[in-house]
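Please review this pair:
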Amino acid sequence: MSFPHVPLRGAVLAAALSPSLAAPALAAEAVDLDQVVVTATRTAQTQDQALAPVTVIDRAQIERRQVASLPDLLRGEAGVSLANNGGPGKATSLFLRGTESDHVLVLVDGVRIGSATSGGAALQDIPVEQIERIEIVRGPFSSLYGSEAIGGVIQVFTRRPQGPFVPTLGIAAGNDGTRRYSAGVAGRSPGDLGERGGWYSVNAAHEQTDGINAYLNTANSAYDPDRDGYRNDSLSVQGGWRFNRQWDADVQALRAQSRNEYDGGSSGGDLGKGVQQVAGGRVRYAPTDALKFTASVGASSDLSDVYYRGAYLSTFDTRRRLGSLQADIDAGPGLLSVGFDWQRDEIASSEVYDQDRRINRGGFAQWQQAFGAHSLQASVRRDDNSQFGGKNTGSVLWGWDFAEHLRLTASYGTAFKAPTYNELYYPAYGNPLLGPETSRSVELGLRGEYGWGDWSLNAFQTRVDDLIAYDSSLVDAAHPFGQPNNIDQARIRGVEAGYDTTLAGWMLRTRLTWLDPRADGDSNHGNWLPRRARQSGRIDADRDFVGFSVGASMYAAGARYDNLANTVRLAGYALLDLRVGYKVARDWSLGLSVDNVFDRGYETARWYAQPGRGYRLTLRYHPL
């Protein structure tokens, strides 16, 4: 299979701009929707066309792997390193390509999520039962999305209809009192791109576990040798309608409510109650095949209340409102996209911040073109933030199909991360004079597609300047212990490799990452950045037989340090997961998974335990 040069337009563009309507819209197209991605360009393209390295995890893979959570699903993917504070539902940091945990932008159905006070998104609270597919785009993408996209972008798409009327049911039980229930119903009209029709999807899920003893430091007053449980209840509701060939619209909403026990002591609490809520809507107008407009609005909330022994301690709430306008113009030789984004962050907290809201406005333009054996993607963006002023970013990606099955890619991009409210305004600590963290990245890649498999190899370097770090010299009457400041730097180099093939009936999928993430400032110069493993990877092997399937996943990570001074070392480890699936009846399936088969003890964050050997038995009903 050679790499395609001509961008997919018409039906595929409309479908990808409206993922919710993609299934009926593509009825007349000989294109596998699972191969269409939208995150890397904010327009539709096949995964083969993408010049940036993109990983797609679809619903079939999610069910085949029988994973328990979104972090488990992402673990070991190229460029991904995770640090978890004690098992299921506990705070989880994701480091993409060695950058900071708040240097990755997370979207749910196109809506930005995360906490404006602490930074980062609560990935552990997004139920895997609500996920249809995930797109992971690695590299700097602030020129399309603005703040946070230094290491890349992760977009989660919630459940979509797979037929005219499809009810689903799932029941799971496992060790440590784990149980999970999910039920949903979805449907769509069978029409093609030019016909009127709609779709809907409703999915509810509940998961609960007694957990493990998450915190192991017996010398700390917060230590409590009990199980730290977790519970999550979620509901997603979506719908859309195509009025005619020119107009369509859709809406979607997701709410996940969690209850998380942990060991935090009298100051940090021992119980957290949180809500992750996302809602959005889009209207698209395509007067011609060469011109398409998209208007979208959205809102997300990250709500957190903390308690200790039943008494209320604190609140940290983020409420975000977003709007976007985008025009995609087929200019003949290429595709021009121009757009405007608006975002308002507002916080409410038991702590008194000097400022509790800010607005960001961003305008961007992107050009995509294929000429001969070459492909180009170039974008620029200007962000105007009410807190720190303006910021310009840009990127250029180039691809060369120098042989029928080989593509060489190269890219350069700049990105930035806006400071959090805690860094800016936290009482007796914040510094309102902080500027954004900035980065410059270069990358060189090579990938091939042959009958014996698909492979890719990417080498990159990212330099991050103006990193926010504690500065003990900034002491005054209001800040007796110092303040954060833009004083640090980092230099990150890495290589990612991937290989997919089928051998003797086995589907084999391999992802390997080598990182050299180093501090580059005056303090701790040359030290490894904390909680990033230098080597990591995973291998998935699955095979289908008549009526049943078997599979295994192996994940390994090298040693890492828990602190920037590199005085606390965490050992490397390897895990093996096994699974088997059985077709009970036409629409019923049974799955059994065993995680961490060899009961390996390990830490990804100092003093925080990880689950030992565990099992889950899952029964699913899904009409074909």
In short: The two ends are 30 Å apart (CA to CA).
